[in-house]
Amino acid sequence: MKKLNIRIHKIFKFGLILVLIAFFSSCEKWIDPDMNVDPDAPKDVPMGLLVPAIQQQMGFNLMGNESVRPTNIWMQLYDGVSRQSHTHARYQYTAADVNSFWGNIYTKILINANILLEKAVEESSPYNAGIAKIMTAYTLGVTTDLFGDIPYSDALQGTNNVLKAQFDTQEEIYNSILSLLDAGIADLSTNASENLIDIEGDVIYGGDPEAWIAAARAIKARTELQLSKKNGAAAYNNALALVDAFTSNADDMEVPFEAANQNPVFQFMEQRTDIRICQTFLDELNVTADPRIPFYCDLNDDGEYSGSVPGGEDESASWPGSYMAANDAPTVMISFAELRFIEAEAAFQTSDPDRAAEAFKAAVAASVRKVTGAVNQDWLDANINTVTGATITLERIMMQKRHALVGQVQPFADWRRTGIPSLTLSINATKTEVPRRFPYPQDEIIYNPDNVPSIGSIIDPVWWDR
Known about the structure:
Elements: H1 2-25, H2 27-30, H3 47-62, H4 68-74, E1 78-80, H5 83-89, H6 99-122, H7 126-147, H8 170-188, H9 209-226, H10 228-231, H11 233-240, E2 253-255, H12 264-271, E3 275-277, H13 279-286, H14 293-296, H15 322-325, E4 331-334, H16 336-349, H17 353-372, H18 377-383, H19 394-404, H20 410-418, H21 442-447
Antiparallel strand pairs: 1-3, 2-4
Helix pairs in contact: 3-6, 3-7, 6-7, 7-8, 7-9, 8-9, 9-11, 11-16, 16-17, 16-19, 17-19
C-alpha cells in the first residue's frame, strides 16, 4: 500500500506539471497581453516627443533651478535668506540635497537622450542622432563640472541601464564630451538631399541642423576653455578656433518657457521665496549705474533696489528680476555674449590684448542688448568702449562675464578657473572656504558604495580645478 501511494503521488505530481505547462503556454490565447501595460509609460515613444521632453528637462532641471540656486548663492549673485536656501548660503550642502537633481539628470535626460540616439540609429536619422549626442555632451559637461567623476560609459547600456555603474574620471568624461560633439557635428553635416528624417519637436532651434552645428561648436569652445588649468595655452588656442560659432544673440541656445510651462526660478520663488539678489552683486552693478539692474532685480517694498549681504537673511531685499525669473523667461544654455567673453579671455591669455579688448566690448554690448532689449550706447561709451588693448585686464573681462551670465551655472566654473572675483565668506559660514563642488547624492552613497569616489568636502576641487 505504501508503494502504491508513492506511485500515485508521483503520477499526480507529473500530471500537475503537465497541467501547469499547458496553462502557462496557453496564457497568450486568453489573457489580454496589454492588461498590465501602463498607458502613462508607453513602450515606444516617437523621436518627435522625446526631443522636446529632453530639452524641457535640460532647461528646467539641469540649468534652471537646482544647479543655479546654490551656485549663484555661493558666487554671491543671489543670497539664500530663509529655509533650505539659507543653509546653502552658509555652505551647508549635503548628499540629500542633490538626490533629486542627480536622479533627474540620469533618468529624465541622459537615459532618454540615449533612447533617442538608439531610435535615430534604428531609423537611419543622423540629424536626430546628432542632437542626441550634443544634448548628452552638454549634460555631461554641466554634471561633471559640478560633481567631478560621474557614471557614463557604464551607466547607459542601452535601455537596460546599470544600477551600480562605475564612475568615469572627469578626464575621461571630458574626452567623451569632445568626441560626442565632433560626432554630433558629423551627423548633422549629412547631406540634406538624402531625404533625411527631420528633427521634430525641437523647442530650441526648430529642427535647424546648421543651428545645432553652431551650438555644438560653441559648447566645444566652453569645454576647451574649462581645461585651461590643465592644458594652458593649448586650451586657449583651441577655444579661439571655435568662438565664431555664434554671430549674434539670435544664435543663443536656450530653452523657452511660457505661462503654461513656467520658468523654474519663477516657480521656485512663487512657491518658496527663499532667494534674493545678493548685495555683493548689486554693489558691483551700482558702481556704473548698470542699465541691467532693473532686469536683474525687482524693486523692494520701499520702491528701491536692495540686496542681502551673503548669509544675511534679509527678506526685504530685492527678488531676482524678470530676466532670470519672469514666468516666461527662457533658460540660457550658452550665448553669443559668452562666446565673445571666451574670445576675450583666451586672447588676453595668449598675449593678444587688442583682440581681447574688442571681444570684451562686443560681449558686454551683446549682454546689454539681450537683457534690456536696447543698445544703451551712452552707457557703453562711458563705461565699456573706452577700454583698449593697453587697459584691458583679466579681472575686467571676468567681472563683466559674471554680470552677463547671472542666473546660469557658468560663473561658478569661471570663478574656480580664475579666482575672480575674490569672495569673502558668508555670515556664519560652516566651511573655511567657499564651496568648489557638489557632494555625491545620498542614493549613490547608499546603493552604489563600491563605486562612489571619496571626497573630503564640498570645498575640495574637481580634477580640472587642481
